[in-house]
Every structure is written in C-alpha cells, then in structure tokens.
Amino acid sequence: MTGPAPGLRVVVTGATGNVGTSVVRALAADPKVASVLGLARRLPGISVPGTTWDTVDLGGRDSAAELESHFAGADAVVHLAWRFQPTHDPVVTWQSNVTGSMRVFRAVAAAGVPALVHASSVGAYSPGPKTEPGVDERWPTHGWPDAAYCREKAYLERVLDTYERDHPEIRVVRMRPGFLFKETAASEQRRIFAGRFVPGPLLRPDLLPFVPDLEGLRFQVLHTDDAAQAYRLAVLSEARGAFNLAADPVIDARTLAAQLGAKVVRVPRALVRTALSAAWQAHAVPASPHLFDAVLRLPVLDCSRAHDVLGWRPARTADEALDAFLRGVRRGAGENTPPLVGRSVG
C-alpha cells in the first residue's frame, strides 16, 4: 500500500518583490505544495514556512548550469523577476529582463520542468479600447514601442510563442495583470515611479487639492495578494495560455479624486507630458514620459477567461487595492526584503 503522493516543488524567481512575496506565501500556504524555493538577487530577511531562499542574478554572470540546478526536480517555475530601473539605460533592463528571462526559459526546458508560469503584463498589449467589457487575451501584444517596459514585455510574448512551439511538453501560462498594489509594496513603488526623495506624506488630501483629468487616464488595478491566488491556481491546474487579471471598478480621475478627497480638473495631456519629460531628463523622477504615454493607451481588460478556466475571482475591489497602496505610501510601509524595505522619505 502506497502513501500519499508528495506535494509539488515550486521555484519562484523574483521572489522578494511586490508580486514574489505574495506568490511565495500563497503557494507555501497550499497543502498541495510541499516546498517553495524563492530566488532573488539578494536574500530577504523574512521567513515563510516551507520556503527556502537562494540568490541568482539573471542579468549577471550566473552560469546556465547554476540556474538549471535550481530548477532540477521542480514541478513548476514561476518567473516573476523584473528590473524597472535604470530607465535612462534601457540596455541594462533589457539584459536583465529579456536576456535573463530567455535564460530562465532555456533552463526550464533543460531541467525538464513540466510547467512555466510567466509574469507578462497589461503593458504587453497594443493600444486598445478604454471601455468595458474590454479586450480578451487574443488582443495583439505588441506593446507601446517607445516604453522600455512595454517593449520588453511584448518581446517576451514573441519569445514564448516560439518556445511553446518548440517545447509542447511544457505547460506555459502567461499572466497579464493590471497594476498590482499592496500596502507593503508601496514604498518600493514610490521609489520606482516617483523617486526616492518624494515624501509619501505628500499624498494627503489637504495637500492635493485636485486630480488631473487626462485624456486616456483609465486603467485597472488589482491587489497583489489576489494576483498571487491566480498564480497559485495556475500552478495547481492544467491550464495553459494567457490570463488577464484585474479587479473592478476601472480606475479613472474621478475614482482617484474620491480616494484623495480632491477635485477633478481637466488638464491638457501635453502639459503633463512636457513637465514629466523635463523632470525625467533632469533625473528628478525615474518614471519616463514614454511609460506615461503607454499608460494612457493601455486597453481595459476582460478577465472572463481567468474566472472561467482558473476559477479565480479577486477578493478585493480595485478601490481597496488602491487604498492599500495610498495607505502604504503615507506610512512608508514595507517589509524586510531588499526591494520592499519601507521608507517614508529619502
């Protein structure tokens, strides 16, 4: 008489960031998962039951054999590792994000891992409609070519097209979420997009009397912990293909104004873009004007496939996810991993 089948062994790259910490915890809490190996450039100061940690630098000099050794015996690899900066040097991000991801894909095949779950993004999509019901997973994924983030995400979609053709034995899942927020990632996201020296307490209603109503300012968000549950379900199921992930309602200027207790004021898009471009050129803010252009062109997503195939539904509304982010920014929230360390100012 045989005993119970052993649980799954899952490897997560980029395990110490916004999405990674949530995915690791979601997997580790599932009784069907026996162990999780979290990989990151730097070791975290957190402990998750059933989880071990190791270092890997996908944009560095780690050998293919080292990566394959991490993946050996795994039932699934969840690839989340991503580098947002430096936005002024896209060669660096390309080396880490695109070349590094291709190394992960090759190592998955070489190690004989049966499932690869890849973090794509709404940013991979070509410009599209801003109205419901939104675009499904068949919408073109050519990104907005001026923005490095979108360009890299779209390129990896093409890489995976070929990869799936060449490796039909590997179950490939592509997650395409909207903006992912949680309180403990707020400090990191403030540093990535607004810069180290923009104090979080500035996001007080009395200091933000109005929210600019820009043409195209309509986007979707999701609480990171809810996205993590979709990743968990993808690992545990036999699902393949792409999945859009977002929560209702769609966020616009009026939603933001309600969150901040501010007024909505119509502002020409060119005015904001010019100001952002000047600040970026002066290295005053890290978010590039090209990413601003992309955000205003992102389509609204139809998430029916994730609901129907994965059985996934977000537990929190988009308003709740946005509120968690704003609360975290004001408090300088974070946690004890190198990417997520909390800091109020500077």
Give a short overview.
Helix content is 37%, strand content 17%. With 346 residues, it is of the alpha/beta class. It is globular and about 55 Å long.
Helix content bin: 25-40%
Question: Class of the domain at 8-182 and 220-250 and 299-320 in CATH?
Answer: Alpha Beta
How large, in whole angstroms, is the Cα Rg?
20 Å
Quaternary state reads: single chain
Order of helices and strands: EHEEHEHEHEEHEEEHEEHEHHHH
Strand numbers in spatial order across the main sheet? 3-2-1-4-5-6-11
Distance between the termini: 62 Å
Tally of DSSP β-strands: 13
Structural class: alpha/beta
CATH architecture of the domain at 8-182 and 220-250 and 299-320: 3-Layer(aba) Sandwich
Any idea what the shape is? globular
Number of helices: 11
Mean pLDDT: 91
For the biggest sheet, the summary is:
7 strands, parallel
% residues in beta strands: 15-25%
CATH topology of the domain at 8-182 and 220-250 and 299-320: Rossmann fold
